[in-house]
Amino acid sequence: MLFNSLEFALFLPIVFILYWLVFNQSIKLRNLFIVGVSYLFYGWWDVRFLLLIGLTTSVSFISGILISRYPVKARWTSAFNILFNIGLLAYFKYSNFFCESFVESFRLLGIELSIRPLQIILPVGISFYTFQALSYTIDVYKKKIEPTRDIVAFFAYVSFFPQLVAGPIERATHLLPQFFSKTVFSYPMTVDGMRQILWGLFKKIVVADNCARWVDTVYSSYPEQSSLTLIITAMLFSIQIYCDFSGYSDVAIGTARLFGFNLMRNFNMPYFSRDIAEFWRRWHISLTTMFRDYVYIPLGGSRGSRRQNVRNTFIVFLLSGLWHGANYTFIFWGIFNAILFLPLLLLKKNRRYTSIPAEGKNLPSAGEFISMLITFILVTIGWIFFRSDSLEQAFNYLSIISHFESFDIIQKRNLLHLLLIVFVLLSGEWIQRDKEYVLQVDNLSLWQRYGIYYFLIFMCFWFSVPEDIPFIYFQF
């Protein structure tokens, strides 16, 4: 069930009304209702997926209890749970990748193997809820949280429908305790949630989907396109993937607020970053902090020798690339970002920018603007590998750009309205860069606020595309 679908437009108000008028009388009943509607939401894609998420949740729940009950064997129990969940993830997500790599390695030796790819359906959102379940077991093992014996609350935590299939990836220490607290209807919180939902839908329907049509058209015939067209397309994909993913996060966070739950912020205006380190503090924050806390710091973080710093950085970015998908393009994307990040880390400049860009000013200084522009260009080059079907396609794409042989632009009329849309997006984010999301406009008058709301609603209808374009991160 897509957030931008008619089904969800009917599903959400029904669930909202039942939640507050019928099922919020007790915490147990409320959590049971959340599990039910979450499984309905997830099963809408494929009922078979419910077996997998149920298995992941059950094993993690039992592991938490066993870790507490048998502390002598806690290490082994935690290791089993990690291996079990990572094993499931690897089977569904990476089996064909490893199989094809195995066949290709023998082909290079002149040996042809007749191994066919496995017919495996990738469950929607498996990377997200697997990591969320893992965070619980790891935190129980590290004694950061007490294991729960309330199986309903735990199932609600893992399957909570607003952020189930594309995050934010919540920590048990933050989200799980909320399922043991009584929720009270709050009108201001509901209004805040609706505004963030509207901003997320604007980013997805108006910005991301329209950019997607341009990007898909160009990528389908990129060898025939001009250098300028490919440059524009690469930049539009940067906007597309940001608005697509952060748009989902905004709808998820806003939807959770409707039910009295707070989810962590997942994006913080990343394209205003002044170096690559700042970008990664602002992009997909839930995943970045998870790799930092569960991989980078346990490996020694930046405390060891330079060789260890380099090793730890490459491990984290390689894992980040693999998490995104079973393709060498994602692995290269991870390596590329590690190479960009390492000089800042080794020179101890990775936390040089922690303040709001151009704080207290209307416009950035020349130095800040150049830093933001360079960072955006470097990130965009990385996104070319992320978007490409193969490394060959990515390098060919970059080769055409570098030759500067032609500057003709296709679909000039479409480009104008795309640039207008992007201008509205970036203007809003720049003006509100010190806010959690753009529509936190309580400082404006009533008519100004509603003027903005109706303007965005109008754009959602006017610029909506006829075809369904799924969220990019559903494939991860």
Question: How many strands in all?
Answer: 0
- Biggest sheet record: none
What fraction of the residues are assigned to beta strands by DSSP?
under 5%
- The average pLDDT value, as a whole number, equals 90
Number of domains: 2
Gap between N and C termini = 16 Å
The residue fraction in helices comes out at 55-70%
Series of secondary-structure elements, N-terminal to C-terminal: HHHHHHHHHHHHHHHHH
Radius of gyration using CA atoms only = 23 Å
* Principal-axis shape: globular
Number of helices: 17
Low-confidence stretches: none
Structural class: mainly alpha
What does this structure look like?
The chain has helices spanning 6-23, 27-43, 49-69, 74-108, 126-141, 151-159, 172-175, 187-219, 227-258, 276-282, 285-296, 306-324, 328-346, 366-387, 391-403, 412-431, 446-462. It has 2 domains: 6-185, no CATH class; 188-274 and 353-475, no CATH class. With 476 residues, it is mainly alpha-helical. The chain is globular.
Can you lay out the helices and strands and say which pair or pack?
Elements: H1 6-23, H2 27-43, H3 49-69, H4 74-108, H5 126-141, H6 151-159, H7 172-175, H8 187-219, H9 227-258, H10 276-282, H11 285-296, H12 306-324, H13 328-346, H14 366-387, H15 391-403, H16 412-431, H17 446-462
